[in-house]
Amino acid sequence: MEDGRIIELFFARSQKALTELDLSYGRLCRSLAEGVLGDSRDAKECVNDAYLALWNSIPPQRPKSLLAYLCKTVRNISLAALKKHTALKRDSRRNVAIDELEGVLVSKSDPMGEVEAKELALEIEGFLKSLSKRDRVVFMQRYAFFMSYEDISQASGLSAKNVSVRLSRIRTRLRRCLEERGLV
């Protein structure tokens, strides 16, 4: 079913909206949540929480891209669950990807940091648009979906070593771009 029709079902408060949402994007959402959490049961719970969040936010929200809105919701809920689950222990599988970008993250602990974080987000968005489609997809698979080099390799047809080298070069270019703009 088309996204616009699913959104209309949400506005009509029809339970069919959730059924159609799951039929269209359930597999992707569970894969995304499991990539963040590493556990299929927790992932399923996060996806259900995301469906509830969409149910509560549509209406009044009318997302331009249902898929993007849903993925962002699933990712945020999964990251919150991961943070809760790993509060006292380090989960290296997911934190490695975050650690790779640690040098370009801005602290949000003060108002100035929040302004810088917004500027940083805009710059990263512009930087990503400047990448080739393949590099942009590889970057997002690693840092938005927390996929391993091996999983990215299988999905893209590149070798794991090539994925590693590409990401290293992209991070170097990103750092240079942010340094030029005084954000790092």
Molecular shape: globular
- What is the fourth-level CATH superfamily of the largest domain? Winged helix-like DNA-binding domain superfamily/Winged helix DNA-binding domain
The number of distinct structural domains comes to 2
Overall helicity: over 70%
Low-confidence stretches: none
How many strand segments? 0
Instruction: Tell me the β content.
Output: under 5%
SS-derived structural category = mainly alpha
Order of helices and strands: HHHHHHHHH
* CATH topology (level 3) name of the largest domain: Arc Repressor Mutant, subunit A
Brief digest:
By secondary structure, the chain is mainly alpha-helical.
Structural features:
184 residues; Rna Polymerase Sigma Factor, Chain: A; Arc Repressor Mutant, subunit A; 9 helices; 0% strand
Fold and architecture overview:
This protein is mostly helical. The chain is globular and about 50 Å long. Helix 1 crosses helix 2 (16-37), helix 2 crosses helix 3 (40-57) and helix 3 (40-57) crosses helix 4. Helix content is 75%, strand content 0%.
Chart the SSEs and their pairings:
Blueprint: H1 3-11, H2 16-37, H3 40-57, H4 66-85, H5 92-100, H6 111-130, H7 133-143, H8 149-156, H9 160-180
